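Figure 6 in text form: structure in, sequence out.
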């Protein structure tokens, strides 16, 4: 059985200058079996066609929150309520798992210095580890894992690809290279304009996770919707489906 892990981010991964209003970096993965992804993709396309008569619309968290571009229709209260209701239903009912890592950049610099490993690379290592743990827990004879990442820029993508190849060669702290090889783990980069529904879900999920990490006591209804979708172990998602570092 083939599995797909879609990765997108919230926040800036750089350490040179930290936004005091958003000092975290979140890398968010949503994992589907190939079969479940086909169902999810169809359900999202139905929503796009219902509201825009065009499944080419790209769901983007910031534009939705700000009611910008195509999402100006959400300035109408009733339309917005219907849209969020249908989107939440999909996010609740579809079969997928969230595996995310959040880096507190100020704490990271304080502990390791500004020349420490970059937040993106750290977060990717955590997510790949947990993706393998999750696949290990699924009862199937043969499983492969494809990782789909949204393009950021040629230099950034090359650096990330280099880090991935290093992980595949050396493994991680908890996962040997042989274990990674057994799942035939590969990565590919896709452009936002490719309109990948899995990447759009990851984008929608990443922002409420970042908000939760920055202020766990603040009302966060979008986060409440996705909590049951985190990868869990022994009924626990903290530190499992969501890793906060350091």
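Output sequence:
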């Amino acid at each position: 059985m083939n599995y797909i892990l879609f990765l997108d981010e919230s926040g800036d991964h750089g350490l040179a200058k930290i936004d005091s209003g958003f000092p975290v970096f979140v890398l968010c993965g949503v994992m589907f079996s190939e079969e479940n992804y086909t169902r999810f993709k169809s359900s999202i396309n139905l929503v796009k066609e219902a509201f825009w008569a065009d499944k080419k619309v790209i769901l983007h968290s910031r534009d939705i929150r700000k009611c910008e571009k195509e999402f100006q229709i959400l300035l109408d209260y009733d339309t917005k309520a219907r849209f969020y209701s249908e989107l939440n239903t999909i996010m609740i009912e579809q079969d997928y798992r969230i595996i995310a890592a959040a880096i507190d950049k100020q704490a990271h610099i304080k502990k390791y210095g500004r020349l420490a490993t970059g937040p993106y690379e750290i977060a990717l290592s955590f997510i790949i580890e947990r993706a393998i743990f999750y696949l290990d827990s699924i009862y199937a004879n043969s499983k492969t894992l494809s990782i789909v990442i949204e393009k950021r820029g040629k230099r950034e993508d090359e650096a990330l690809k280099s880090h991935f190849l290093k992980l595949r060669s050396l493994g991680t702290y908890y996962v040997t290279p042989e274990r990674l090889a057994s799942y035939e783990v590969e990565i590919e980069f896709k452009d936002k304009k490719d309109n990948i529904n899995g990447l759009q879900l990851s984008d929608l999920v990443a922002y409420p996770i970042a908000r939760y990490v920055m202020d766990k006591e603040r009302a966060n209804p979008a986060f409440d919707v996705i909590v049951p979708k985190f990868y869990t172990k022994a009924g626990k998602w903290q530190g499992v489906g969501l890793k906060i570092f350091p």
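Caption detail: The mean pLDDT is 94.
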